[in-house]
Amino acid sequence: MMWVQAERYSSAADMKRQYAAGRARLMGKPPRPEPKSEPEEAPPARVIVFRDQSPKDAHVRAWEYWKAEAGSPCKAYIKRRCEEMGLAYVAVIGPSRIQKFVDARQLLMWEVKTIIKPEISYPELGRLFGGRDHTSALYSVRKVEAMNGEDRGAAWLERKERCAKETHARKKAASQ
Questions:
Q1: Inter-residue contact 87 to 101 (CB < 8 Å)
Q2: How far, CA to CA in Å, does 15 sit from each of 7, 60, 110?
Q3: Rounded CA gap, 120 and 61, in Å?
Q4: What is the CATH topology of the domain spanning 59-175?
Q5: What's the angle, vertex CA 130, arms to CA 125 and CA 136, rounded to 5?
Q6: Measured at the alpha carbon of residue 134, what is the angle toward residues 132 and 138, in degrees to the nearest 5?
Q7: Whether this model's pTM surpasses 0.70
Q8: Nearest-angstrom CA–CA distance, 22 and 24
Q9: pLDDT, tens digit (0-9, with 9 covering 90-100), for 51-84
Q10: Whose C-alpha in 72, 99, 160, 173 is 20 to 30 A from the C-alpha of 57?
Q11: Which pLDDT score, from 0 to 100, does residue 4 have?
């Protein structure tokens, strides 16, 4: 720890003078730089060339699809479906809450869970879509089932509506 020794003043006027000097030093205008006598040489102009950092031919794209399918068939399916729907893969698995991306994400979660890999767990399905929680995946699958009119989805939708009405009634009764 560094100790600072207190300053000693001979009078109140001396203390005020040192205070004003310190304040002027800290709060005053910065000193002006001295004008230069000789102009500096301008640096040589640099030529900037914009180049595609990763140009890809058709065979390279085909190899990337093949490589992706070898790694994760679910991820490859999602990419293919995003391309078919005309949506960016990054936007679908990203945090966007724009309705078209949300609907596509929920539909793809349902397709992966019911068609592509039924044995996939909900936490794994959520991670596949940008690190989402298992409840997001479960909600998506149930919502699409309800929209398709499947029995399990319809029962879930009825339960959800009933719980919402009960909560609303409870809050209304508590506020009165």
A1: yes
A2: 9, 78, 78
A3: 28
A4: Chromosomal Replication Initiator Protein Dnaa; Chain: A; (1.10.1750)
A5: 55
A6: 110
A7: no
A8: 5
A9: 666 667 778 777 777 776 666 788 889 998 999 9
A10: 72
A11: 64
In sequence order, which residues have a C-beta less than 8 Å from that of residue 141 and are 6 or more positions away? Answer: 109, 110, 113, 114, 122, 125
Segments of the chain with pLDDT less than 70: 1-4, 30-31, 37, 39-40, 47-55, 68-71, 152-153
Of the candidates 71, 69, 70, 152, the one whose C-alpha atom is nearest the C-alpha of residue 110 is 152
Write out 125-149 in H/E/C secondary structure: HHHHCCCCCHHHHHHHHHHHHHHHC
Tokens linked to 16: 């005020």
| Whole-angstrom distance, CA of residue 5 vs CA of residue 18 | 16
What's residue 51's pLDDT?
63
- If we measure between CA atoms, which residue out of 75, 176, 162 comes closest to residue 117? 75
Q: Where are the domains of the chain?
A: 59-175
